[in-house]
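Hi Q.,

Before the meeting this afternoon, I wanted you to have the heme C prediction in hand. No need to reply - just skim if you have a minute. The sequence and ligand are here:
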Amino acid sequence: MHYSSYKRGIGLLCLFLFAISSCTKDKLSNPTDKILTEAIESIAPTNNIRDFILPYSSDLDNLPQDKNNRLTASKVNLGKMLFFETGLALDALHDLGQGTYSCATCHVPSAGFMPGAKQGIGDGGLGYGDKGETRTKLFNYTEEEIDVQGARPLSLINVAFTKNTSWNGQFGADHNNIGTEDLWSEETLTEVNHLGYSGVESQNIEGIKLHRMVVNKPLMDEYGYTQWFNAAFPEVPYEERYNEETAALAISAYIRSLIPNQAPFQKWLHGNRDGMTESQKLGAVLFFDKAKCYLCHNNTALNNADNFYAIGVKDLHETDAFNTSESDRRNLGRGGFTGKEEDLYKFKVPQLYNLKTGGFYFHGSSKNSIREVVEYFNNGVSENSNVSNDKTSNLFNPLNLTTDEIDHLVEFLENGLYDPNMTRYVPEEVLSGNCFPNNDPISRIQLGCE
Ligand code: HEC
Ligand code: HEC
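Predicted structure with the ligand bound:
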């Protein structure tokens, strides 16, 4: 009773003050909202919490994009099919691999567009499990023949907010790669940068080839995509309209639209103060303050598109991954691309949405839970014997978080940044009629296609 009359009193006071000034709901709200708002405002680029609001995926004009690949709904629709289309997988090394994999084999939607395993296996892989976790090498491929890379596939959620792509940022003609033109070569798979596209587009043009896929007019006629290409690329001359490059541009448009804006943190940023739980809010306060995560994860998607950092995590060869070793160029991070001493062991700062279902964290998949990741940052000590502590970033330091604080931070990352409805970005079927994201005999059974 006492409380309600107090509330009524405040209400009247507000009503009264409303006439002479603004009396916002903030005055009555939970103090954590206020603390979080101030924490974010103090570090946001324009000192406004709106700096972390993601655009809607249908708001194509406001999604970050490549000026050479303007986003249109027709491109997004076509890309949404091709990304999952196992019917493109026609350059497999052996017959058993033909037509069995897609981009989504290594970027599985239900695993946060990561592989659901420590390593993605495209051509030469077999099986799917629930979300990629049981995929393994197909018996008649050698280890050297399977399509695998020496680092965990990055998530494609929020990829619109990265600029130069890959863990070492080697793709894209612009941004950090200006001045690296002499390094763009077939050997490092970066010759594609000479076409002048941004990171996402460049990587995808190369990716279609690297991942052994085929796109041409007869095949698109056969599946029924020809009209979709006509709608997406009306300005491209007919003879250049149906190929790996246009397919990659459409796929780029689609993955640029993978925006997790139904996550609780996004709801909160839009003004729904009940969008996050108290624990998620406390975790967010830590993220933007005491735990110093924002020092590196400070772009809209809580990634960083400008700087690469060394935090000394283990490389993939330290797990029993396929076809990678101590001498893998990927272990050197940005330095493996630029050849510069000062770039050694520095990696891309990834986005942080929808990570909890991925199950494998950091480029070398050295952690299996978000809690282990947070504990790693809390300890602030390199675990990689090549990266002594003096080679790690001076922003990477012990944090002295309490157990409660770690709990809240984990809760923010696991659930505050989790959009539960990402299946809205997955098509119901692909035009070939094939099973997807995988189409090998074991995956077909596991995916319910048999
Ligand atoms: C065999 C597994 C595999 C397949 C198949 C695959 N990828 Fe990837 N993808 C990866 C790996 C591994 C990385 C990280 C590579 C690196 O940094 O060295 C990656 C990174 C990316 C990135 C960079 C993201 C960023 O933030 O920098 C994009 C974009 C991408 N993939 C798109 C695609 C597309 C489109 C396809 C289909 C044409 C595809 N991938 C198929 C394994 C795969
Ligand atoms: C010094 C810069 C820096 C700071 C500070 C930092 N991060 Fe990161 N973070 C990175 C880099 C770089 C990576 C990728 C490292 C790698 O895999 O080699 C990363 C990776 C991650 C990942 C794994 C993402 C994935 O796709 O595997 C999570 C989760 C994460 N950081 C959360 C946090 C949290 C929470 C904090 C604060 C406690 C934090 N980071 C502080 C730079 C930083």
